Amino acid sequence: MTDLADGNRVRSRDRELGMHRHITRRDFLNGIAMGVGGTLASPWLGGLLAAQTPTPAAQDRPDYYPPTRTGMRGSHPGAFDVAHDLRDGTFWDKAGKPVETGEEYDLVVVGGGMSGLAAAYFYRKHAGASARILILDNHDDFGGHAKRNEFHLGGRMLLTNGGTVSIESPFPYSKEARGLLTELGVDPPALQKKYSGNGAFGGLGFGYFFDKDTFGAERLVTNAPGGFYGRQGSSGKWAEFLARTPLSAQAQQDIVRIEEAKTDYMEGVPQEQKKARLSKMSYKDFLLNVVKAHPDVIPFYQTHTHGLYGIGIDAVPALDCWAIYFPGFQGMGLDRVPSKGLTFTALGEVTPQEEFHFHFPDGNASIARMLVRSLVPASAPGKTAEDIVAAKMDYSQLDRTDSSVRIRLNSTAVLARHVGDPASAKKTEVVYAREQKAYSVRANGVVLACWNMVIPFLCPDLPAEQKEALHYGVKVPLVYTVVGLRNWAAFQKLGVRGVSCPGMYHTSMNLDQGPTMGEYKGAQSPDDPVLVHMLRTPCQPGLSAREQQRAGHYDLLATGFETFERNIRDQFARVLGSGGFDPARDIEAITVNRWPHGYAYEYNPLWDPEWPEGKRPCDIARRRFGRITIANSDAAAAAYTDQAIDQGYRAVQELLSS
Ligand SMILES: Cc1cc2nc3c(=O)[nH]c(=O)nc-3n(C[C@H](O)[C@H](O)[C@H](O)COP(=O)(O)OP(=O)(O)OC[C@H]3O[C@@H](n4cnc5c(N)ncnc54)[C@H](O)[C@@H]3O)c2cc1C
After folding, report:
1. If I label 353, which of 37, 210, 271, 423 is the partner at 20 to 30 A Cα–Cα?
2. Among the atoms of ligand 1, which is closest to the Cα of residue 632?
3. CA 412, 416, 417: angle at the middle one, nearest 5?
4. Residue 412: CB within 6 Å of ligand 1?
5. What is the DSSP string of 448-473?
6. Does residue 303 have a pLDDT over 60?
């Protein structure tokens, strides 16, 4: 085939998929930011735009409302250029001398995620309402991973989480984290009792989509039994389900053997030794070498760990997979008690739990919004966990001179240092970059609640051992794509509310399950517009966990929106086409929540050494440095909201007692 014929074929397929359709995503070109007013938002551009700082700042403009922005979100274009210049050593040449703002604060918090907002909250609680606090964040919205996606489709507001899904944790919330929720008016068990997920999809089940490239034939198979972590499937039998798939007869037999396992594959081995062995082999190796399953079963299971770990079964310990209820271990007599050799997440699964979880329609963005409402009362109306859901926040209130707490967005901190000797200095200086200029402020103390791997670049004075420890964890890259549809008739017709697509660009697609709450009401009838959540993790099987994370990070930053859009449309057409879905007609909006620096890195027995008590990289990394302290969920090496809050609390206590 000639290049010309190839090109024509691609163009014709693009038309079928609706790539030409104008949907609510075109506020940028292919991942390259178009700033407000149409200027390119890449911050430095060799200093050409340096003198043109617009006033007022973008966040002060009346139409500034990032939750409704679509296209490439999460780490959106323009959010990370400064940090990358800092990393690459090119920032200071471009930036020139910072402008002295003359601003003085009691506290500067770097990072407006859950940890930074909580730190500001705890500090103000201690120091009183007049405490002057500045929160800096490089994104155009606050909340860090806890971001709100707000769509307006067919006259209806539809909400979902762009990142952090829900209040949940492997371990009970601490007194401080629980206390913070209580003070905000959030009572997870009571909310859970009152508002559970969207019941409209109750009659629908789950399916698997087998793609031709991975499985040799293209097929949607509905009514999946059993299911996997976090999923409930139908109660049908595995053999009957598998017979409808394109999997080989041997793979089918082996999957039945795994799912309905009765064998003790390590008969006679003491319990602790079994667990020790399982913690040092991947689930993939367990299936191939211990269960002795045919390699054809691997593509079926490979991505089952993506949502929780961001990597496949080649890099997750088999013991973790046992703890999170993966199949194959049922005959091995393993007691569900806390054991060595589990990751933080999996250890929680075998530790007795209380009911303490809740999913707001926009995920934990509601908690971030409540924290901001508490810190800057003029920013949002209302005072309850219910009324925050539909509230429209006024971003122009976030950074006002007459407010004791100020939240400055689109502002990347580039330097945090003491004014004088760190051992005795009473003042610190923080420099940040915003809209092509660097600015300097002073503060009595600084909490760095930003991603920990950035800190060595911000604080060149830190001891070498601490810098090395800060660099250790490599955050987990992942993408939560949200697609707004005209309706969910195709899902209804096919009898599915979620489809696992192990071989495809996005490995799952699920109707958004957010609850009806307060004034907010999600989709009710199949004719209503709806949101679909898709998951993509750009991991690279075959490498160590940290190397997979690094590779995924570069992959995400190198992938433009157009590639995402084409893959999304193609996937919808193939998976739901038999239900009458037409991507050119039915897709109304696309938001790609891209998180190259997603979950905090959790230590993994397959890839990390076992450190002595108090000597893990995060223990060393979070040491106080004079009047600069370190928070963020990275400081706990645990990707959970309560951990982020706890680290914010600790960092503030360290500052107050220094
Ligand atoms: C997709 C996804 C889903 C998740 N789901 C859940 C869940 O369901 N439940 C749960 O408990 N946890 C979940 N998590 C984990 C989540 O990371 C934590 O719960 C928590 O929100 C982390 O808060 P944080 O403040 O520690 O970090 P972040 O949310 O990452 O906030 C740190 C902020 O600092 C900013 N920053 C970095 N460098 C600078 C700089 N130099 N200057 C200024 N700002 C800077 C960052 O851009 C970011 O906005 C999820 C995470 C992701 C990515």
Report:
1. 271
2. 26
3. 160
4. yes
5. E-S-GGGHHHH-TTS-HHHHHHHHH-
6. yes
Section 191-198 average pLDDT: 87
Q: Which distant-in-sequence residues (6+ apart) come within 8 Å of 271 by Cβ?
A: 333, 334, 335
Q: Report the C-alpha gap between 295 and 285 in whole angstroms.
A: 10
Residue 420, sorted as left (phi over 0), alpha (psi -120 to 50) or beta, turns out to be left
- CA-based torsion, 502, 506, 510, 514: positive or negative: positive
Task: At 445, list the tokens.
Answer: 């103390």
Residue 113: closest CA among 482, 369, 307, 439: 369
- Whole-number Cα distances in Å, 542 to 280, 298, 546: 16, 13, 11
Q: How far is the CA of 146 from the centre of ligand 1 (A)?
A: 6
Report H helices in 109-227: 114-127, 175-184, 188-194, 212-215
| b/e map 193-225, b = 16+ CB within 10 Å | eebebbebbeebbbbbbbbeeebeeebbbbbbb
Place of tokens 């691609």: 10
Q: Rounded CA gap, 481 and 483, in Å?
A: 7
Neighbours of 587 (CB within 10 A): 24
Q: Which residue has the higher pLDDT, 454 or 7?
A: 454
Instruction: Tell me how far the alpha carbon of residue 114 lies from the centroid of ligand 1, in angstroms.
Output: 7
Structure token digits, residue 632? 């963020």
Does residue 164's CB lie within 6 angstroms of at least one atom of ligand 1?
yes
Helix (H, G, I), strand (E, B) or coil at 205: strand
Whether residue 449 has its Cβ less than 6 Å from ligand 1: yes
Q: Tell which one of 450, 593, 601 to mutate to probe ligand 1, the residue whose CB is within 8 A of the most ligand atoms.
A: 450
- Predicted confidence (pLDDT) per residue in 345-390, tens digit: 999 999 988 889 999 999 999 999 999 999 999 999 999 999 999 9
